# Entry
Amino acid sequence: MKLGESIKAKREQLGLTQQDLAEKLFVSRQTVCRWENGTRCPDLVMAKKIALVLGISLDDLMPGEAVQDYTPPKEPPVDISCVKVMLTGIFLLVLGSFLLQADYGFFMEFSSLCLIAGIIIFAVGLFIPMHKKDAIIDDALPQRACPKCGKSHDFDYPQCPHCGHDYTGRSV
# Structure
């Protein structure tokens, strides 16, 4: 089953019209129609919202046959946050040097501040771990374990996608 077909099947199962689904997702009815026809595909954030509105997991919303053949790409060996910090330091060094060369009296304090900050920021960038396993920033979504089945899933699901346990207290 394709993504558009699964959206349409679940929407019809819940008795929703395309307009109803569009209003819940704050998109136009034509957008929902394009998703269901397969002429457009929702981005990942919108797919997550669709799954939440339809009360299913993202895995159930997406086509299953593509998941078995998927091999994850290799992670890049370098965490670019260190590069960003070092580039910021270099920018401040260049700016401070330029202002120092301009030799305007009121720029002297600012140029000195830029030079000092540039040196410090560049040095900090040197000490940021450059391997993904040591990365400082973690982009993972918060997880919760279901009290009924014990499996973990994203925190923002209203129901457990594995066993259907409802966190809102309503009967399933």
Observations:
- Strands lie at 143-145, 152-154.
- Residues 81-128 form one domain.
- DSSP finds eight helices and two strands in the chain.
- The first helix runs from residue 3 to 13.
